[in-house]
Design brief:
By secondary structure, this protein is an all-beta fold. It contains one helix and 26 strands. A hairpin with a 5-residue loop joins strand 3 and strand 4.
């Protein structure tokens, strides 16, 4: 893998590839980021390069995933691996120059598991790591940023910051969860979470309202009563689907014991190591809400679920994420 300096910086290819839509002949392209920082365009059928690789980031920079919208590839990086800045990256594959564009929120790493979520306008949303919220100096730690390619620049378009960001920063409870973006009654909405173990429902057209700190919904704590920064809370990414009768569902994984005050109508025994929780998106008295419906059985470090044909697939990784550095 080369360049590995730390268990948190393993080097090599770390970003999940992304598959593009079929072209006129039906062929599809896989975009993959090699450990040397080059972006490869591969024929899905045989794995051969369909275009020369292009530089996209530093070698061994720990990108988390690739995301694609309208021929623009995005990624995010974290933990300063191999001197790599913690920021959002974009490259327009239609640009003959293949200019690499970045936006740096001046925060800790952007390590949402599935990178950035992209809304219908092409705006990419990514969570930011520990750091301060200082608007005057364009610092957006412990929040959620939105950036969009305009011309040959990746420009900040919006952001969300929890009102208790300072406390979250002190306790290392950053919002490192890739959002899920979906339609509800013709309106685009977004959900994300945090290691504090709350879920936030946000309007992508106005994240957090005028002060950027007022979400549509902020749930009570699902877990993490003990304020554990290393092996509890919501990690990874969110999921959503609409069932056959038009009900919009939101799913989140979490780690650690369920909070004793968090109640759901249906559960399957005590949760001590983690679980997946399902919410319904509903509107009552003119206000949106996330209504908890069920919680899975106990899962050892529940990972982000995926849904196919109305069936939810989830697993517990059992990964011990306790960090044992001298500090």
């Amino acid at each position: 893998n080369g360049g590995a300096t730390d268990p948190l910086c393993p080097g090599g290819q770390t970003a999940t590839p992304v598959i593009g839509p079929p072209n006129a002949s039906g062929a599809r392209t896989v975009y993959a980021l090699a450990g040397n920082g080059e972006l490869h365009s591969l024929n899905l059928a045989d794995g051969e390069d369909v275009a020369p690789p292009v530089p996209f980031g530093y070698p061994n920079g720990k990108s988390y995933a690739l995301n694609l919208w309208n021929n623009v590839v995005y990624t995010t990086t974290s933990q300063g691996c191999a001197g790599n800045p913690n920021q959002m990256w974009a490259i327009n594959l239609s640009d003959p120059q293949k200019k690499v564009m970045t936006f740096n929120p001046k925060s800790g790493g952007l390590w949402g598991r599935t990178g950035a979520a992209i809304d219908s306008s092409g705006t990419a949303w990514a969570p930011t790591g520990d750091g301060v919220y200082d608007l005057a100096n364009q610092r957006y730690g412990n929040g959620l940023i939105a950036a969009k390619v305009e011309g040959n620049e990746l420009k900040l378009k919006d952001w969300y910051e929890p009102t208790n960001w300072a406390w979250m920063q002190k306790r290392d409870l950053d919002m490192q969860v890739t959002p899920a973006i979906f339609k509800y009654k013709g309106r685009e909405l977004m959900v994300t979470g945090s290691k504090e173990c709350r879920v936030y429902l946000i309007d992508p057209k106005s994240a957090g309202g005028e002060n950027h700190q007022t979400p549509l919904v902020r749930t009570p704590l699902l877990c993490n009563e003990e304020v554990n920064f290393a092996s509890a809370g919501i990690w990874g990414s969110m999921a959503s689907w609409e069932d056959s009768i038009g009900t919009r569902w939101v799913l989140t994984p979490f780690w650690g014991p369920a909070h004793p005050d968090f109640k759901v109508p249906v559960s399957y025994g005590p949760v001590k190591h983690g679980a997946v929780v399902a919410f319904k998106v509903e509107e009552k008295n003119g206000k949106l809400q996330l209504t908890p419906v069920w919680m899975s059985r106990d899962m050892d470090q529940a990972e982000p679920p995926v849904i196919a044909n109305g069936v939810i697939f989830a697993y517990g990784s059992g990964e011990n994420t306790v960090q044992s550095y001298p500090d």
